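Continued from yesterday's entry.
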Amino acid sequence: MKAGDQIETVTKAVGIEPCKGCKERKLLFDRRGWIGGTAATLYLAKNALLTKMWEVAGAEVEVSVHPARAFTGQFTTISRWYLLEYGHHGELADVMTTLVAHVREHFKDNPDDVFEWLKALRPASKEPLAGWTIDYAIIKKGYPREGPELVKGKMEYPDGYRLILRGREYTIISDENAGIYFARTTSHAPAAKDLTWAPDYPGAKANLSDLEDLSTLNKT
């Protein structure tokens, strides 16, 4: 069954009658395949329909912390590329679209090199990986500021971003400095828009093993 036919089956199963836009997106999936069609579709529809399709059709088994960390690393890489390409950080849908397009191009020549997080990726959902919700914000307060030193000299960050990926046990945090931090998931935690920097997230550690060690100590 073609990818477009699979999407059509899913939408009908959840009681959504295909409209003209649905039929156009079905053609995109048929022509470009699941990942390629997703990249094109994100440009056409940032809407609840696509999110619902990924929630129903995506992986149902909770993704572990290690693939979630790998996804975050790829996200920060794409965010840095987006900044250098366009002169500002991208909104969540823009970064996800670029990420999917990049991964699709990568796997075109490496069909057997499939990351675990890619198998579970639902780029238009608030839960892009099963069991992990995403909170993302572009930060303008306090910007522009001096950025990293590049080959052609220094650049300025016109804005920044905060990324929080929350799982049931762990939370992964990052920002435009590309550092990745881990914390235990709690019910009382700052939103991405209110976070000063990734390492300022409550209980954030640079290494996941630090949290695992604490977990072991708490059980003894």
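--- second protein ---
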Amino acid sequence: MDTRDVVTSTRRTPDEPRRRSDEGLVPRYTIYGETFPPVVDFIEIEPIRDRSELFDWSIDAHTHAGLLQVVLLFGGSVRVTLDEMRHDLVAPAVISIPSSVIHSFEFEPDSSGYVVTLADGQLDSTAMGPWVRAQLLQRGLTLPLDADDPLGRRLGVLCGELLHEQKTVETGRVATMDWLSQTVLVLLARQSERLDDSSSGHVPSDLFREFHGAIEDHYVEHWPVRRYADHLHVSESSLNRLCRAVAGATAFEIIQDRLELEARRRLTYTTVPIHRLANDLGFVDPSYFSRFFRRRTGSSPRTFRRERLPAPMPDTSDS
């Protein structure tokens, strides 16, 4: 995992004004407000209060590179934004956040629970990892829990044990934290599977995950479906059948969805001129980017960005 882009950033203090970057996307942290190079087997747990209270229970939009998070809300409520989707959740509930998804939180004061952060590669280090990823971390997910479900108590006990192991220096500490965090993820993946009415028990294959990985590496190069198929050593028709079975969409649609998502992110969270943004996303002609974006969203890039600009602060100066 390459962490070179996260080693030099600093921690934002609660009083520091919030502002969007003119060039980059939203801040990229290891843990919110902090950037340090996580090790390959990185696992971190902390109570929601520990960090949220420092920032008046409001966590600005940010992302994590190569790290995934699970937020377990056991008390209070939260408004969470995952990319552009906003959800209002009341405890008990769970939020799963895959690597690189832009997210923010507005917690009700005195909310309680835990935030578990671990290296994305940790998920694939066990036999259950691919199934957990398919059920819980294909996309940002919110997961309600029943108040009287014993699952909540089990998760609370596991998180308490995970926090205890983190604070101690004992033989087997890392292995125990790995086991506890993997158990939390498996229990949540089971719950997600039970609540998914459309679930047929089908687990996306290794090939589908490889396709998603290839898209992440090459979507700005505008590879055609045939090139992805060649890269994966399958035929176009086989790749399309797989995508329809797993995601209900063609391979081309999945590629276009990723490109649209990145365009939305950059229009929302940066002020880079649209012609430069189009070039960064692989569009040689900005007008073609505008047509692509309008066709996908029904809005021009300029209008989309303008509608998402923060409202100007009222002028309170004396006249």
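Strands lie at 43-47, 58-62, 67-75, 77-82, 85-90, 93-97, 103-107, 112-119, 141-144. The chain has a mean pLDDT of 81. Will compare against the first tomorrow.
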